[in-house]
Automatic annotation (TrEMBL):
Keywords for this protein: Hydrolase
Family as reported in the entry's similarity comment: Belongs to the CCR4/nocturin family.
Pfam families: Exo_endo_phos
InterPro entries: CCR4/nocturin_mRNA_transcr, Endo/exonu/phosph_ase_sf, Endo/exonuclease/phosphatase
Name of the featured protein: Endonuclease/exonuclease/phosphatase domain-containing protein
UniProt GO MF annotations: 3'-5'-RNA exonuclease activity
SUPFAM superfamilies membership: DNase I-like
Biological process, per Gene Ontology: nucleobase-containing compound metabolic process
Source organism, top-level taxon: Eukaryota
Gene3D superfamilies assigned to the protein according to its UniProt record, in alphabetical order: Endonuclease/exonuclease/phosphatase (3.60.10.10)
Species of the source: Coccomyxa viridis
Segments forming domain Endonuclease/exonuclease/phosphatase: 24-138, 209-316
């Protein structure tokens, strides 16, 4: 089936004695939310799961990612897990409470994290946690966090995926900011636990601090309060949109300078939305660098109907980043902590 071709753009020159880690981020658009998502320019046959699902797997396979972070996954057991296991991935899934897909009679959606088990060793149980709302009750949104030993780079890695509250407005912006604070505090607590274990000689990692990979649909712009929480948190993260201009060569497929990149572009009855709201964040650490990333498609690539479209299965564009990591080699125990 025809699908939009993705190309890489180089950000930095590769160094010697390093390993790479490829990370994918994608809101795949849940089955049920696609058909009832008010995509007014998109024909219903384009929104059908039977059409979109092969394109979703093709996009993930093309990324050749080591870590795949997904949101709006609601065909986990009958589709995503078996399909991605065939590609060599192991999966973790956290379903959200009161999923909007359920009101249309479809399975509950949530966050999923897939990883290559021949590279990453889970060092503890994954944590799927909702964000608290007013009164201390659990809300619909949340995050999925897992701690790994990267057996190729020889370091500890915290990987997390999240889907923050949607919709515009001051109250929703404040909710996303609060959710970002909770999320960063949880990741920071996991990092402190790893660092403490390392200091006590009970864990082996490349350096005293773990590396952090945070992916998600933030439903907000890079300058938003939620993103500023992540950017300025003491944990120290940066994203692939931060001061990373492509190396301009004739063949690297760099983004057109005439158009700002976007990760979603859709036409709904209330208007048009074309924004950057999806992110791959990683540690602001000299051990890790952005090497290259997927070029973001243009309006001309997608077509006048916006997203989803006949050549792309979601209303969000996937992100894929190749990160370069200074390697100390795999631990002598084979990654068993």
């Amino acid at each position: 089936m025809e699908k939009l071709l993705r190309k890489h753009e180089d950000i930095a020159q590769a160094q010697s004695n390093c390993v790479t880690m490829t990370v994918m981020q994608w809101n795949v658009l849940a089955d049920g939310l696609a058909q009832n998502g008010d995509f007014e320019r998109v024909p219903q046959d384009v929104l059908a799961w039977e059409r979109r699902s092969p394109q979703i797997i093709q996009e993930i396979a093309e990324s050749k990612a080591d870590l795949v972070c997904l949101q709006e996954v609601n065909r986990y057991e009958d589709f995503f897990r078996p399909q991605l296991e065939r590609l060599g991935y192991t999966g973790i899934f956290w379903p959200k409470a009161c999923s909007p897909a359920e009101q249309y009679g479809y399975p509950c959606d949530g966050c999923a994290l897939f990883f290559r088990a021949d590279r990453f060793h889970l060092t503890g149980p994954p944590q799927g946690q909702p964000f608290a709302v007013a009164g201390g009750l659990n809300g619909k949104q949340g995050m999925l966090l897992a701690v790994f030993r990267d057996m190729l780079a020889g370091c500890a890695v915290i990987a997390a995926t999240t889907h923050l509250k949607a919709k515009a407005g001051q109250a929703n912006e404040a909710a996303r900011q609060s959710q970002a604070k909770l999320m960063m505090d949880r990741i920071s607590a996991a990092a402190r636990s790893i660092s403490s274990s390392s200091a006590n000689g009970t864990s082996s990692a490349c350096g005293p601090e773990p590396l952090v990979i945070l992916c998600g649909d933030f439903n907000d712009s890079p300058s938003s309060p939620a993103c500023q929480v992540v950017r300025h948190h003491q944990l120290g993260l940066q994203c692939i949109w931060d001061d990373a201009s492509p190396i301009q060569t004739p063949s690297n497929g760099a983004s057109s300078p005439e158009q700002e990149p976007f990760t979603t572009w859709k036409f709904r009855s209330e208007g048009v939305s074309k924004r950057t709201i999806d992110y791959i964040w990683y540690s602001r650490d000299p051990r890790i660098r952005l090497l290259r990333r997927w070029r973001m498609p243009t309006e001309a690539d997608i077509g006048e109907s916006g997203l989803p479209c006949k050549v792309y299965p979601s209303d969000h564009l996937s992100l894929c980043a190749e990160l370069e990591i200074d390697s100390l080699g795999a631990p002598a125990d084979g990654g068993q902590g």
